[in-house]
Amino acid sequence: MRTVAVIVGTRPEGIKMAPVAHALARSQALRCALVSTGQHTDMLRHALEAFGLTPAHDLAVMRPAQTLSSLTAALTTALDRLYREMRPDLCLVQGDTTTALVGALVAFYHRIPIGHVEAGLRSFDLAAPFPEEANRALVSRLCDLHFAPTPGARDNLLGEGVRPESILVTGNTVIDALLMQTERQETTGERQVLRARLAQHLGPAWWERPYVLITGHRRENFGEGFREICAAIGELAARFPDHDFIYPVHLNPNVQGPVRETLGGAANVKLIAPQSYPEFVCLMQSSRLVLTDSGGVQEEAPSLGKPVLVMRDVTERPEAIAAGTSRLVGPHRATIVAGVTELLRDAAAYGRMAKAENPFGDGRAAARITEAVEAFLDRRPPRS
Known about the structure:
Structural class: alpha/beta
CATH architecture of the largest domain: 3-Layer(aba) Sandwich
Helix content: 40-55%
Number of domains: 2
Strand order of the largest sheet: 3-2-1-4-5-6-7
Number of strands: 13
CATH topology of the largest domain: Rossmann fold
Order of helices and strands: EHEHEHEHEHEHEHHEHEHEHEHEHEHHH
Strand content: 5-15%
CATH superfamily of the largest domain: Glycogen Phosphorylase B
Shape: globular
Distance between the termini: 14 Å
């Protein structure tokens, strides 16, 4: 059997690679070695636990107040040692994190073939998202297999000179993960358990009161961007006293500071700790709409029929904008307030977004990736 190292470091990577790890584990030809770099610690561990996964290797590189440079250095050293010991036949990285960049770069140094899950997304602005846009483009230069989630992502890669035979349009694995989670909640009664658990923070029958779900953590929004976002949420909370605004607040001090300072006293703004993936899916399912600067939420929420307003000026997921499932409002008070107000007051506008077709996949991306990895390795001699 060939060994495939699946490299994850952050919560989103854990969620998006969980279906891939499960698909590889079912393969008769491949052995999956799940590697946690520990770029995130508890958040990643909780994400993997939601899918019944435990890393075979945990590099535990996270340190307090870590800079991008120190993180990159720590990852390089740790992965160099691990690859030397493991000697995997192929490495899979996901998306646009520092873990993905360094995971691919060190594999390249060791002449290990690399597959990139969620390849080809581009905003064409190196400052947004920062540093993710650069990370993702750099990974593309190193890879042997490019698993593009959409035809648009494939076209981006072709435009950069990537060999067509190395690209496979798979759909996005986050849809696989979401469907796995919603099926489990619906068939096992877990949703009621999750609602009861969330009631400790949100009050009894919290899901019966209409609410907007909010996430925000992007580095490029630190400072003035978050002040504008928080001012918008405060204005909306005053304008819609019959709605709650539920915000699981990222632990980064650059987020915690302005959010707590601006929104801590609003009665219908519920500031809660970051939630595990099952709880977050439960929150998405009952929400009216989602206000976010995240990437993955732009892909997930439309599968649940939830409009998404994106608090960024550009997105590397233009398919969502074109399909009508998402809309850019930027990190700007006026446009955020206008966008949420329209959707909460105009049923026709809400319906157009809620009923638009999600362009990000059918839930079979992980199976396609596994089949492609099997075929690729079948054509190559084993590593000596």
